[in-house]
Design brief:
CATH superfamily of the largest domain: Type II secretion system (T2SS), domain F
CATH topology of the largest domain: Receptor-associated Protein
Largest sheet: 3 strands, antiparallel
Structural class: mainly alpha
Helix content: over 70%
CATH class of the largest domain: Mainly Alpha
Strand content: 5-15%
Number of helices: 16
Length: 403
């Protein structure tokens, strides 16, 4: 959602300024008037984007910093420090930068009498709806410190998963780049120098050599065509990504890709179970929790089904029965949710299920990467071997002719 910066006068006649999220400038003006603020200037803040995920944050503030801030605030509140003083203390400890600016604006809103959730809501480029909803539930239940501690644990867990995925992908990506660079060097510089040897030879060249020469010529003389096709493909893909139907088809296809689909499904299920369990534990109503979880689960196939599942819950249905209608959710998760509904411990069962799927994801990732690395080495060896054989076969034929 767009963010607008405003200046104006409050109901006490004092000048006020800040940021607000709204669908349009007109909607922002109406919202300010409902808050007893007379705006004099409203302009879009182009430097700040809208919500983009579970716990959205600008590039200048990473997930570890947000987790650390959340844990520090939880610690100060649990030590019986007033909320305003806790935020002011955290602001004073921060170096000049984006985080300090955010805390300064939050402190100003708290001084105006707003609650923490309302103060964070105007910083939607940092704190998503799920974060704010849990904070609001914590304030309402009087257990804000415990909710913030759970949030910090969750954020740290998400960062740990992200780090594992990044580390696992680093080596294969490096291998692909090195292998591609080697092949490009051979096709661009090495092969053209060897083709002169074959030019004077009127004997028929092996098919493998002809293929190599054609590819080399295409890379050297048709690079502009390859680049143009790549740019066109990227442009077309981005245009298609703006269509919800295409994104749904893409996400559904990814779930069916052998190997990758199973990994992706485990990661989505872990995220679904942990977020829903955390929201329910924090006191967020189940319908609202399902709405937030549906938005947090990025995959469109899951998001569409969860939107339909919310309607079943509104009509009085059980979550386990609703989830059993789709093949997207395995029997293990459905069974654990059913046990939680019967025993009244669904929050704990969801958290356990999330942890179980996370462990399965870690194990599957380790196995997948252990298999992928030798396959990449084999692919590089076959590619280089193809070039070597394609070059040596005509040379062998020339030797036979000379003899």
């Amino acid at each position: 959602m767009p963010i607008f910066r405003y200046k104006g006068y409050g109901k006490d006649g004092k000048e006020v300024s800040g940021s607000i999220t709204a669908d349009s400038q007109k909607a922002a003006r109406e919202r300010l008037k409902s808050d007893n603020v007379l705006p004099t200037e409203i302009e879009a803040d182009e430097a700040r984007g809208g919500n983009a995920g579970l716990f959205s944050f600008r590039r200048s503030i990473g997930l570890p910093e947000l987790a650390l801030l959340t844990r520090r605030l939880s610690t100060l509140i649990s030590a019986s420090m007033p909320l305003f003083e806790a935020v002011a203390t955290l602001m004073e400890q921060e170096r000049p930068g984006e985080m300090r600016s955010v805390l300064s604006r939050v402190k100003e809103r708290l001084s105006e009498g707003k609650g923490l959730a309302a103060a964070l809501a105007d910083e939607s480029h940092l704190f998503s709806e799920s974060y704010i909803s849990m904070v609001a539930a914590g304030e309402a239940s009087g257990a804000l410190d415990l909710v913030l501690e759970r949030l910090a644990d969750f954020l740290e867990g998400q960062e740990a998963v992200r780090s594992k995925v990044t580390s696992a992908l680093a080596y294969p990506i490096l291998m692909a780049i090195v292998g591609g660079g080697v092949m490009l060097f051979l096709l661009t510089f090495v092969i053209p120098k060897i083709t002169g040897v074959f030019a004077d030879n009127k004997a028929a060249l092996p098919l493998i050599t002809i293929i190599l020469l054609k590819v080399s010529t295409l890379v050297r003389k048709g690079w502009w065509l390859i680049a143009a096709l790549a740019v066109a493909a990227i442009y077309t893909y981005r245009r298609l990504m703006k269509q919800e139907q295409f994104r749904l088809k893409r996400d559904t296809f990814l779930l069916k890709v052998p190997g990758l689909g199973a990994l992706l499904q485990k990661l989505i299920l872990a995220r679904f179970a942990k977020i829903l369990g955390l929201l329910l534990t924090s006191g967020v109503p189940v319908i609202k929790a399902m709405e937030i979880t549906a938005e947090a689960v990025v995959n469109r196939a899951y998001k569409r089904f969860l939107g339909e599942a919310k309607l079943d819950l509104i009509e009085g249905g059980k979550l386990s029965a609703t989830l059993s209608k789709s093949l997207l959710f395995p029997p293990l998760l459905i069974h654990m949710v059913g046990i939680g509904e019967q025993s009244g411990t669904m929050e704990k069962m969801l958290e356990k299920a999330g942890s179980a799927f996370e462990k399965e994801f870690d194990t599957s990732t380790t196995r997948f990467m252990a298999l992928l690395e030798p396959l990449l080495v084999l692919a590089m060896g076959l590619s280089v071997g193809f070039v070597v054989i394609a070059v040596l076969l005509p040379i062998f034929q020339l030797n036979q002719l000379v003899k």
